[in-house]
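Postdoc handover notes: sequence design on the structure in folder B. Input C-alpha cells:
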C-alpha cells in the first residue's frame, strides 16, 4: 500500500511539472486558449501533491484556493449560474455550514475561561476590533482604492478572528485555550462591533445599514454556531442517551419537524434569521443520523466529525472565493497586485501590533503569540458573505477573497518560525495550561 501511494505521489509531481511546462510553452507560442487548462492541470496536481507531502500539506489549502481563483478567472461563466440559479445564493448557506462546524468545537468551558483569564481576553479582543479596522481604513486610503474596494479592505478588518487561528496558535506553541476563547468571544460580539465599525469607518464610502447587517451576522454566524454547540453535546456528550439509537433518531425527527415548521411559517416571523434556523436545524437532522451510521453501524471513530468538517469548510471557502472572483475578474486584473500588497501589509500590521501591544500589556510570550495570531487572522468567509449579501458589492468582496488565502500562508510561516522557538517556561502563568 505504501509503495502504491508513493508511486501515485511521484506521478502527481510529474504531472505538476508537465502542467507548468505546458503553461509556459503555450504562453510562449501565443496559444492563450490552451494555456488556461494547462495552468489548471499544474495547480490541481500541485495541490494534490502537497496534500500527500509531510511538510507541504499545510499549504495545500492555499494551492486549492489558487486552483479555484484561476478557474474562475479563466472560466467565469462556470461559477455564475447552475441550472438557472445564481451561485451567489450559495455563499451564505456555505458560511452557515462552516460556522456550524466551528460551533461543534465549542463548549461551555470556552466561555467560562473568560473569568479564568480576563485580562488576556480583554487585551486580545480590544486589539482585534481596534487595530485591524483602523489599519484597514488607513491602508485603503493610502493605496487610493475606489470606494467599494476600500470598503472591502475596511470590512475584512472589522470582522472577528478566523477559526484557522486556533490551529496556527497550536503550531506556534501559543495558548490554544485562549485562542479558542478569543475566537468565540469576538464572534459573539461581532453582530454589534462589525456594523458599528463599518458604519463609522466606511459609511461615507458605501451605504451601510446597521440593523440589517447586525441581523445578517446573527443569521449567518450566531444561529449556526448555537446549533453547532448543540451538536457538540450530541457528538461528544457523556450522557448515555447520546449513544443510543432511539433518542438519536427521535432527535433527528424533532429537528426535521423544526425545519418543516420554519419553512411553513410566514417568512416575516423570523425575518433575516430564517435561513440560519433552517440550516442549523437541518444540520441537527444530519448529525445524529450520521452518528448512528458512522459509529453505530460501521463502528467508526468518535471524532469522525472533526475529520469531515475541516474538509467541508475548506471546500466551501474555495467555492465562495471562486464565485466572488468570477464576478469581479475584470476588477481583479486591474487592482489585483495592489490588493495583494494591501492584504500583506494589513496582515503584517495585525501580527506585529497584536504581539507587541500584548507584550506592553504584560502578557507572557505564549499569550502574546496567541493575541498576535488572533488579531492578524480574520474571518474572510464572513467578510465575503457580508460584502455580497448586505453591501451587494462584488468589488467589496475582493479584499476578503485575497486576504483569506494570504493569511493562511503567512500564518503557517509565522507558526512554523515560532514553533522552533519555544516560549521560556519561566514566563508562563498558571492559566496557560487551561
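Designed sequence:
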Amino acid at each position: 500500500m505504501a509503495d502504491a501511494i508513493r508511486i501515485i505521489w511521484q506521478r502527481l509531481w510529474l504531472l505538476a511539472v508537465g502542467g507548468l511546462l505546458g503553461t509556459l510553452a503555450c504562453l510562449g507560442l501565443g496559444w492563450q486558449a490552451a494555456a488556461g487548462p494547462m495552468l489548471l492541470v499544474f495547480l490541481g496536481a500541485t495541490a494534490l501533491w502537497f496534500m500527500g507531502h509531510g511538510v507541504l500539506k499545510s499549504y495545500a489549502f492555499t494551492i486549492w484556493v489558487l486552483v479555484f481563483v484561476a478557474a474562475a478567472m479563466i472560466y467565469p461563466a462556470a461559477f455564475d449560474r447552475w441550472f438557472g440559479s445564481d451561485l451567489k445564493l450559495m455563499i451564505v448557506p456555505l458560511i452557515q455550514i462552516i460556522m456550524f462546524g466551528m460551533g461543534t468545537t465549542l463548549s461551555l468551558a470556552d466561555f467560562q475561561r473568560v473569568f479564568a483569564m480576563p485580562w488576556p481576553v480583554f487585551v486580545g479582543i480590544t486589539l482585534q476590533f481596534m487595530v485591524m479596522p483602523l489599519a484597514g481604513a488607513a491602508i485603503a486610503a493610502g493605496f487610493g482604492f475606489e470606494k467599494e474596494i476600500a470598503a472591502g479592505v475596511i470590512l475584512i478588518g472589522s470582522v472577528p478572528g478566523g477559526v484557522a487561528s486556533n490551529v496556527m496558535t497550536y503550531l506556534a506553541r501559543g495558548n490554544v485555550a485562549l485562542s479558542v476563547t478569543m475566537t468565540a468571544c469576538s464572534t459573539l460580539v461581532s453582530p454589534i462591533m462589525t456594523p458599528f465599525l463599518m458604519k463609522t469607518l466606511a459609511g461615507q464610502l458605501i451605504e451601510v445599514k446597521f440593523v440589517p447587517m447586525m441581523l445578517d451576522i446573527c443569521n449567518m454566524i450566531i444561529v449556526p454556531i448555537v446549533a453547532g454547540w448543540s451538536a457538540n453535546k450530541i457528538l461528544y456528550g457523556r450522557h448515555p442517551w447520546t449513544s443510543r439509537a432511539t433518542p438519536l433518531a427521535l432527535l433527528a425527527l424533532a429537528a426535521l419537524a423544526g425545519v418543516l415548521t420554519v419553512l411553513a411559517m410566514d417568512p416575516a416571523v423570523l425575518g433575516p434569521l430564517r435561513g440560519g434556523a433552517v440550516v442549523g436545524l437541518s444540520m441537527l437532522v444530519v448529525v445524529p443520523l450520521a452518528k448512528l451510521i458512522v459509529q453505530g453501524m460501521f463502528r467508526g471513530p468518535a471524532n469522525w466529525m472533526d475529520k469531515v468538517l475541516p474538509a467541508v469548510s475548506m471546500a466551501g471557502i474555495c467555492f465562495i472565493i471562486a464565485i466572488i472572483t468570477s464576478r469581479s475578474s475584470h476588477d481583479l486584473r486591474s487592482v489585483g497586485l495592489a490588493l495583494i500588497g494591501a492584504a500583506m501589509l494589513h496582515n503584517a500590521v495585525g501580527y506585529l501590533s497584536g504581539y507587541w501591544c500584548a507584550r506592553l500589556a504584560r502578557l507572557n510570550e505564549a499569550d502574546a503569540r496567541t493575541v498576535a495570531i488572533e488579531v492578524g487572522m480574520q474571518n474572510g468567509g464572513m467578510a465575503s458573505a457580508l460584502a455580497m449579501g448586505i453591501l451587494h458589492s462584488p468589488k467589496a468582496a475582493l479584499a476578503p477573497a485575497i486576504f483569506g488565502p494570504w493569511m493562511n500562508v503567512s500564518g503557517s510561516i509565522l507558526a512554523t518560525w515560532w514553533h522552533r522557538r519555544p516560549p521560556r517556561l519561566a514566563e508562563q502563568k498558571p492559566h496557560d495550561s487551561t
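Context for whoever picks this up: The longest helix spans residues 329-360. Don't rerun without checking with the PI first.
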